[in-house]
Design a protein that fits this description.
Blueprint lengths: L3 H4 L2 H11 L11 H31 L6 H29 L4 H16 L3 E2 L18 E9 L2 E8 L7 E19 L11 E3 L4 E2 L9 E4 L5 H7 L2 H10 L4 E13 L8 H12 L1 H11 L12 H11 L21 E3 L4 H34 L2
Antiparallel strand pairs: 1-2, 2-3, 3-4, 4-7, 4-8, 5-9, 6-7
Helix pairs in contact: 2-5, 3-4, 3-11
Length: about 375
């Protein structure tokens, strides 16, 4: 793994980035400047709320509906402060609209150059590019940063609007679909599992050795023997050595390693961790996937090599075409309890609505009420 750009000087990084002529940060990823703009707007509303509500109470409750000279003087001062603040807001908005400074982009540039040096393209995405537990059916997630090469990608995947949450992941395309397997790492669990969906305990299986100390393994009912075929002793050893802090999911023809929180790819340890998984565990699983056929599916009972030989003997003049590998209906998906449905997501949505109302609607309403009390004063 070539990691020289993570330690290169700032000038070298800037020069190299100008040479490759690539944008390291997509426009749809919010910056800290844009976050400051939203915070400023919220503070203006609360300022108006406090000022107008305070003066409204003074006029209606203390001065019996009369705008006294002292109130008018204080209100004028408050409006002058507001005018200066609005002027500053305009300048803040213009500043936030500018492209990020080179200094603030150095981290992104270092990771982009490191990806390019190792054969990966920086390709952020506003939607999930693969199906998995963490992609939530491709709804409401974005992948940034995302680095991709043929058959491999890795990066961070976060829910829209929640930058503090999310996962970092490695996804690999398998040569053939496999039954749905989930390996829940015990190293990254807290009080309970950190998986984004609950898995029926009746689907949990036990593998050899002390593997259960490191991973809880789930397989579809009637597909437990397949797990022993894929997760051979050498594969389990590689997973324990190099990926024990990752959850692992095999779904259709995708192998996904994922864990919380989102990674900082300016650190060499993140790249070295992924490189170890790609060098050790992934090749072994790819080899097993290429050989596997689900014998429960008609036409896949015979191994491809034997089927080819038999076809050439029986029909020597007809080119043999291998049937596409498929997985039986019972093995395509585990029984999951989707945590994006039910009471908790509803409570979360209500909480988010209440938060927005508190930050924007409440001060706006009270500011308007206070303003009308002042206007109605004589």
């Amino acid at each position: 793994m070539d990691l020289r750009w993570l330690a290169a000087s700032d000038d070298e990084v800037a020069t190299a980035m100008a040479t490759v002529r690539r944008d390291s940060r997509p426009k749809w990823v919010p910056t800290r400047r844009q976050l400051l703009v939203h915070i400023n707007h919220c503070l203006i509303l609360w300022y108006l709320c406090v000022v107008f509500l305070g003066f409204g109470i003074q006029v209606d409750g203390v001065d019996d509906g009369t705008v006294s000279a002292s109130v008018a003087s204080d209100l004028t001062l408050a409006l002058v402060i507001l005018a200066v603040w609005i002027l500053g807001t305009i300048l803040l908005y213009r500043w936030a609209a500018r492209p990020p400074s080179p200094r603030s982009q150095l981290g992104d540039w270092r990771t982009s150059l490191t990806a390019l040096a190792n054969g990966f393209e920086p390709k952020p995405s506003q939607t999930a590019t693969f199906s998995s537990l963490i992609s939530h059916g491709h709804r409401g997630v974005r992948q940034y940063p995302r680095f991709a090469a043929p058959g491999v990608e890795f990066g961070n995947l976060t829910p829209n609007g929640r930058r503090s949450e999310g996962w970092h992941y490695l996804a690999v395309t398998l040569p053939a679909p496999l039954p749905h397997f989930i390996l829940d790492s015990t190293a990254n669990n807290g009080v309970g599992s950190d998986l984004p969906a609950g898995v029926d305990r009746g689907q949990r299986i036990t593998l050899e050795g002390d593997f259960d100390r490191w991973f809880r393994v789930y397989a579809p009912v009637r597909y437990g023997l397949e797990a022993h075929y894929f997760f051979t002793p050498d594969v389990m050893a590689a997973l324990i050595d190099d990926a024990h802090h990752f959850n692992v999911e095999i779904v259709d023809n995708t192998l996904v390693f994922f864990t919380k929180p989102p990674a900082d790819f300016t650190k060499p340890s993140q790249w070295e961790s992924l490189a170890a998984i790609l060098a050790n565990a992934v090749p072994r699983l790819l080899s097993s996937a290429a050989r596997y056929r689900d014998e429960r599916v008609p036409g896949q009972e015979t191994p491809p090599v034997i089927a080819k030989i038999r076809a050439e003997i029986e029909h020597p003049h007809i080119p043999w075409v291998a049937p596409p590998p498929r997985i039986g209906p019972d093995g395509r998906r585990l029984q999951l309890r989707d945590r994006t449905t039910g009471i908790w997501p509803v409570l979360g949505a209500i909480g988010w609505f209440v938060t927005l109302a508190f930050l924007y609607a409440v001060p706006g309403i009270f500011a308007f009420a206070g303003f009308m009390s002042i206007v109605d004063g004589r």
